[in-house]
Design a protein that fits this description.
The complex is a heterodimer of chains A (173) and B (118). Chain A is mainly alpha-helical and 173 residues long. Chain A is 54% helix and 0% strand. The N and C termini of chain B lie far apart (48 Å). The chains are: A mainly alpha (173), B mainly alpha (118). At the A-B interface, helix 2 and helix 5 of A face helix 1, helix 2 and helix 3 of B. Chain B: Keywords: Membrane, Transmembrane, Transmembrane helix.
Chain lengths: 173, 118
Amino acid sequence: MVADPPGPIDPFWTGVDLRKMPGRVPRRLRAHRRREAAGNEYASGWAGCRGHGRFMGMDDVDPPRRAPFGSSLLVAFGWYVTVAAAVFVGLVGVPANPNRDCSVIFACLTPQEGFALAAIVGAPVLAAMLLTTLAITPLLARRVPSPVLAGTLSVSVTVGLAVLAGGFWQAAR
Amino acid sequence: MRRVGLGVLFFAWLYGVPFLFVVGLVRRVSSPYVPTHAAARAFGSTTETLLTTAVVLNLALPIVGALLARLARDNYWIRHFAWSPAGVVLIYLVVALAGSLATGPLFSWTPPVGLGAG
């Protein structure tokens, strides 16, 4: 068999096909192969080049179909922390009358005291909500690919359930 | 490093905008102790700044994040910022709902001068 003339495939007549050497493939040849691998419909233009794949994630490894449970739970608990912190910061910023009547119990609570009281009184509700979130998050994380969406959805569902339960409780009283 | 920066931007939107909105809303529904007109105006303008910042950042952060994620070709965050407009619309709906429930304007509101409730 006659060797190929010098060219992009075998420039130095070494008899070694550069295309078959994985580490030494020229960039343009690699791009050409990618375009070939992408199929005929995508064999023109930018298809096969980095950032121009058929799908957004084509260059990278396939995105995971399910969200990681730990990250989803962190996102969910992040919502609780955010809302609690926001309410606290909001209350701290409201000036109170220094000369108000403090003879009635619970009339003159600082935001810190008010939060502590709310935490004690609302502990069962908060615990129930946290447990519900803990139970719902793995179910959602199995179906939703993003931990952000899974955590946020699980908190939304928990809040919805809490509102429903509160409504039933009000109606039953 | 790019990934961390885009993540910070995304979570600044996800948690930061509701945080600012809730802080502003708590101030808006409170009855603060404002003995003078100047104190009332100062309290009202701070509240308005918080709410306006939340509304502006709600639009700005996802747009900036989507552009930066595209520039960085970070597919993970491109996907997240591509879906963030749904959250943007949701937050605006909540703001509109709060505004419709409020007695008086949600923005540019000044508390009445007085001793406050608590």
